[in-house]
Structures are given as structure tokens and as C-alpha cells.
Amino acid sequence: MSAVHPPLSNLPIAFEDVSVVVGAVTILDRITLCLAPGTPTVLIGPNGSGKTTLLRAAMGLLAPSRGRVAWGGQGIGAPKRRAIVFQRPTMLRRSAAGNIRYALGAARIARADRDARLAELLTLVGLEGLGGRPARRLSGGEQQRLALARALARDPTVLFLDEPTASLDPAATKAFEDVIHAVVARGIKIVMATHDLGAARRLAGEIVMLHRGRVIETGAAADFFDTPQTGEAVKFISGALLV
Amino acid sequence: MPDDLSALQLVLSGDPALLAIVRLSLIVSLSAVLCAAFIGIPVGALIALTRFPGREAIIVALNAMMGLPPVVVGLAIYLALSRSGPLGFWDLLFTPQAMIIAQTVLVAPIIAALTRQTVEDLWVEYRDELAAMDVGALGRVATLVWDARFSLVTALLAGFGRAAAEVGAVIMVGGNIDGFTRTMTTAIALETSKGNLALAVGLGIVLMAIVVAVNAFAWMARRAGERLAG
Questions:
Q1: What is the ipTM of this complex?
Q2: How does pLDDT run across A183-201, given as a tens digit for each residue?
Q3: Chain B residue at shortest CA distance from A137
Q4: Does B135 touch chain A (CB under 8 A)?
Q5: Contact A36, A204 (CB under 8 A)
Q6: Whole-number Cα distances in Å, A186 to A6, A12, A114, A117
Q7: Please, which pLDDT band fits residue A3 given cuts at 50, 70 and 90?
Q8: Which positions in chain B touch A95 (Cβ < 8 Å)?
């Protein structure tokens, strides 16, 4: 897809002693982490471990209570060429094509290029032929892929995915993951949060495990699943309840 | 009943006096709704999307203004437009324009309050997505108002209902002058007091038919729009 380029100017994303505190609750606790270019990074951990908050901070949607997030080695405002697919994306009250057109407009893509980009994106996510349908009438899996197309309309260098397949059936999950593989092949950095170990095994190049707002373990996915280094990781991988 | 038959005959015969009254009523009410929409929709959207000290008090005041007594509004506009009033130099008292001003004052808070609620509800849904797409403040307002357009039709209908049914304010600032500022509601009140029940009932039938027709049209337009846009 010619519209999506792989420059990595927004990477690495460095968390430097980052904490996020809301009221009396510490959601992220002194996180130091580097999200580097390359294979997909998957954040895993039980519900409430801080995965979504970490993604939002990395996206620039949330200011840390302490520490800083630096994009491409700079501590200034979040760069423009990043995008996110939320766990339950909100479809704008427009057609599927209208949603993508809106994102193209928001990303200030030249008007002359928008039709071609729209067609490319609909094809990439397998929604060609459904562009005219109201977005809110699409199935859950189709909406999730539309949200992905909308995110890719921003021509991101890094794409954050927050539990994107949590509410999808196996067929819809496979369709979504197929698109993710295509996106990865184009050099876009994926950072995905999930508590689904199967999805993590299928997609991850690197694992970051979170528990109670702290990074418990990081490493290459194969090493993490074969030889976990911490008790929490061993329990989580074995399917034991980690609370 | 003879009165009912006479009323129906008046309506069906296209009585010129009756048609003139209907025409003026529609012009005044629709103009007022249009003016109130230009004021109320941006104000409502602005209040929905901004946070400032005293915002809650303004929302309470706006909601309270939905129930503004028409005679009080009529009195205020009368005082403002009278020769000795601050806007007396406009020379608008007892004109259709004065009636439009009065109804705009009555309708704008309704549209603003309902817009505020509608846009705020949609903002809760859209906030994360628009923030992720780096949509600026003006873009957010435009997006939310556009995407809430079918819901905002209800606000406009509420405003039209208020304007079309209102009699107190227009009779005070319009004067109910035959052939010039006489509307359906003021004519109904006058003809009833004169005992001319045929014309009063005829106007009542037309007024009800118009309100039902406008609501039915808006409902159909909303359903069609929602089917197309989702």
C-alpha cells in the first residue's frame, strides 16, 4: 500500500520513570521502558494491570503524573504520525467510507489523494464493497477493521492497539490479525495490549508483562513463553489466576 | 355542530383572510426558529464542550429559561422596543419583526439547552476518537453538531412547537393588527372572545394540522437520514 510508509522518526518511545496516579490509585508505577522500532510489542497482563493506561500515555492522550514520555528522543508534544484502535472503537455516525474520509481529512491528507487512499484502505481491511454502509450497522469484526483502516488513514509510524480482538469471534479475530500481519510487513510498529495469550503468541516479537502498574518482565516473545523469569509470568502463562 | 361545519368550510374554501393569517404565522414562527437555531446551536455546543467557572450555573439558568413565561418576554421586548426604550429607534413595535424577536427570545434557550445536552452526550462517545485524530476545537464542534444533526431536529421541533403555540408575547409586541400582525394564535383568542367560533375553530384545525405535518415531515426526514448515515 503506497499510502503507508515506514519512517521511524517517532520511535523509540521512551518511558522515563513514568507514574500515573488518579486520586489515591496508582495506575502506572515508575515505568521505565523503551518501545523500539521492529517487531510488534505486546503488552500482556491481567485486567487492571495498567496496559490501557500505558498505551494512552504512549499515544499522548494522557499526561504522566511523574516522569516523562519521549518520542524519537524528544520530550516535546506527541508526534502526529501515531494512531490507536481502542478496545471498543466509536464509529462516527457516517458511512464506513465517511469514517475513513473523516480521518483522512483530520490527518490533512491532500483532497486529490483521498479517493485513492480510501480505496486502498478499504481493500486492505477487506471492507471493499461496504464503504457505503452506515458504519454503526457493520458487524463487530467489521467495525474493528474499519477502526483499523481509520487509524491507518493517519499514515502512522506507530500503531497502538488496545485489546482489539477481545470481543471478536475466532473468524473475526483471524481476519483482524491477517490485516495486522500485512501492516507489520509494511514496517509500521505495532504496540498491542492484550490479556489473550494466544494472540500474544501469534503476533508478538517482544513481550512486556505488566502487573499492578509495574513492568514485571520484558523480552523476546519466544524467550518469554519458553523460559519466563518471574513467578508472575510463570503463573500468567500457565493460566493460573494472577490477582 | 354548525360551528364545526362552518369551520371546515372556511378551511376548505381557502378563505383569503384565513390564509393570510396562516401565512404570517408560519413566517413568524419559522423565522424565529431559524434565528434561534443560529444562536442556540453554537451556544449549546460551546457550553457542552468547554469547562469554565460558573458553567453549572449557566446550564441551570439555560434549562430554567426553557420555561420562560411568554408574557414576561413580551413585556421585556415591548419595553425595549417602545419609543422610550433602548431599541425604540428601530421603530419595530407592532410589526412582524418584533414578533420574530420575541419568539426568538423564547425559542433560543430551548434549542440551546437541548443542543447542549445532545452534543455533550455525543462528546462522551467521541472524545477519545477525536483526541486520537488530533481534531481541533472548531473541528470538534462542527463534527459533533453535524453528527448530532438528526437528534438536533428534535430540538428544532420543540422550538417550533413553542413558537407556533405561543400567544402571550406576540400579542403584546405585535398588537394583533388585522392583516398585519394577526397570527393564528392571536386570532383564535380574539375570535373566541368575539364569539366568532367558526373562524376560531377553523384556525385551530389549521394550526393543529401544520404542527402535525411539520413533525411528521421531520420524523420521516430523520428516519431517512439515520438509515443512510447510521
A1: 0.87
A2: 999 999 999 999 889 999 9
A3: B230
A4: yes
A5: no
A6: 6, 18, 20, 15
A7: very low
A8: 228-230
B-chain CB neighbours of A131 within 8 Å are none
Is A6 a residue whose pLDDT tops 50? Answer: no
- Tell me: cis bond preceding A64? Omega within 30 of 0 counts: no
Residue with cell 397570527: B183
Please tell me which residue of chain A has the smallest CA distance to B147: A93
Q: Residue B112 to residues A32, A33, B139, B165, B170: CA-CA distances in angstroms? A: 47, 47, 19, 19, 21
Q: Which three cell numbers stand for residue B22?
A: 396562516
Write out pLDDT tens, residues A118-169.
999 999 999 999 999 999 999 999 999 999 999 999 999 999 999 998 888 8
Kindly report, residue by residue over A199-228, the tens digit of the pLDDT: 999 999 999 999 999 999 999 999 999 999
Residues B116 and B59 sit within 8 Å (Cβ to Cβ): yes
> Which of B132, B134, B230 lies closest to A134 in CB terms?
B230
Compute the average pLDDT of residues B93-121. Answer: 97
CA–CA dist B230, A136 (Å, integer): 6
- What letter would DSSP give residue A213? T
Q: Scan residues 149-188 of B and list those with Cβ closer than 8 Å to A.
A: 150
Closest CB to A137 among B132, B139, B230: B230
Cβ contacts (< 8 Å) between A107 and chain B: which residues? 133-134
* A98 contacts on B by Cβ (under 8 Å): 229
Write the pLDDT tens digit of every residue in B6-37.
667 777 787 888 889 999 999 999 999 999 99
Q: Please, are residues A81 and A231 in contact by the beta-carbon 8 Å criterion?
A: no
- Determine the Cα–Cα distance for residues A38 and A125; give it in Å rounded to an integer: 22
Cα separation of B8 and B118, whole Å? 41
Give the mutation candidate from B126, B130, B133 for the A interface (greatest A CB count, under 10 A). Answer: B133
- Per-residue model confidence (pLDDT) at position A18: 96
